[in-house]
Amino acid sequence: MTDTQWEVLSNQAITVAGVVYFLALLSHLVEWAGLRQVPHTEEVTTGRTALFGRLGLLLTGLGGLVHFVALLGRGMAADPNRVPWGNMYEFSISGAWFVVVIYLATYKKFKLSWLAPLVVATVLTVLMFAVIWLHKPVAPLTEALDSPWLVIHVVSAVIATAAFTLGGLLVILFLVQERIEKKDAERGVERTTGYFSRVPSTKVLDRLAYRMHAFGFPVWTFAVLITGPIWAHEAWSRYWNWDPKEVWAFITWVVYAAYLHARTTAGLRGKVASVLALIGLATLWWSFIGVNFFSTTSQHSYAEGASQVQLVPVDSSPVPSP
In its keyword annotation, does this UniProt entry include Transmembrane (predicted)? Predict the structure, then answer.
C-alpha cells in the first residue's frame, strides 16, 4: 500500500470506529432504558436488556479494533513510518483508544457495565472533536520529534491521560451518587430502580476512582518528571525551561499528588478529595488543549492551521512535544 492509501484507510477507519462507538452507545442506552423500572436486586440475565448489554460491549470492542487500525494507518502513512503521536489530532485519537483499552481491561474485574454509557460517550466526543477541529494531513516528524523519546514520553503521557479521564468519570459519578444517597436518606427511602440504583455505592466509587488515579499517577510522574526533562535536556541542553506546557503539566502532577494524599487522609476523603481530582482533570486537559490553542509563548504548541507541528526554537535548538 502507498502512503496515500494508508492515510485514506486511517481516515476511513476512524470514521467507521466513530459509527461503531455510536451504535455501542445506542445499545447501552437501550439496555439501561430497559432496566429503568427493574429493581436492582433482580438479576437480568435474559431478554432484551441483556442482549443489548452484550451487544454494546461487543461493539465497543469492535470499535476499539477498528480504532487501532486507524492509528496503525496513520503511522504507516508517514514516510518514514512512525508512531502516530506527531500532533494534537494523533494524540487525541490515541488517548481515546487507550480509554477504551483500559476500560475493557478492567471491565470484568471491577464489573463496570454501569460505566459503559459514559465511557463510550466520552470516547465518541473526543473522536468527534479531533476529526472536526484537530485533523491534519499526515506529515513527517520534525527534527525535534524524531527521537526515541517520542515513544517513551508520549505513550506514558497518553496512558496516564486515559487513566485520569476514566478516574474523572468515576469521581463525577461519586459526587452525583453522594447527593442522591443523601437525599434518599433524608426522605427515608431506598432507591431500587433507575440508573443510579445500579451504580455502586459511594464507598465503592471512591475506591475505584482512587485505584484508577493511583495507576495513572506514577505513569504521569514518569512522563512529566523523568522522560520529559531528559528529552528536553537532549534538545535544549536544559532539563527545565518554564515553558507553559511544562508548568501546567507540573501543576497537574501537584494537584493529583494532593488528591492521592487527601484520599489517604481520613479527614479529607470523599467530596474534598473528589473536587481535587476534578481540578486535576481540568488542569490536565488545559495543559493539553488550552496551552496549545491559547499560549503564544509555549514552545510545545501546535499551529492550528498548519499541516504539521510548528515549533518555536530556543537558542536554535529543537523542541520536544507534546
Answer: yes
Distances in Å between the Cα of 129 and the Cα atoms of 38, 94, 123, 178 are: 36, 13, 10, 31
Shared domain for 202 and 251, answered yes or no, is yes
DSSP bridge pairs for 314: 317
Last residue of a domain, one of 106, 140, 174: 140
The answer for residues whose C-beta is within 8 angstroms of residue 322's C-beta and 6 or more apart is: 85, 88, 91, 154, 157, 245, 288, 292, 300, 302
Q: Is the peptide bond before 244 cis (omega within 30 degrees of 0)?
A: no
pLDDT for 199-223, tens place per residue?
Answer: 899 999 999 999 999 999 999 999 9
- In a shared domain, residues 225 and 194: yes
User: What pLDDT sits at residue 96?
Assistant: 96
User: Do 171 and 235 have their domain in common?
Assistant: yes
- Specify whether 33 is located in the same domain as 146: no
Of 91, 125, 140, which residue sits at a domain end? Answer: 140
**Number of domain units in the chain:** 2
**Which H or E element spans position 96?**
helix 88-110
Task: Give the Cα separation of 133 and 148 in Å (integer).
Answer: 28
User: Which string of b and e fits 69-108 if b means at least 16 CB within 10 Å?
Assistant: bbbbbbbbbbeeebbbbbbbbbbbbbbbbbbbebbeebbe
pLDDT of residue 204: 93
pLDDT in tens, 111-156: 999 999 999 999 999 999 999 999 999 988 777 677 788 788 889 9
Below-50 pLDDT ranges, the chain: 44-45, 302-322
The C-alpha cell at 1 is 500500500
Range of the domain at 96: 1-140
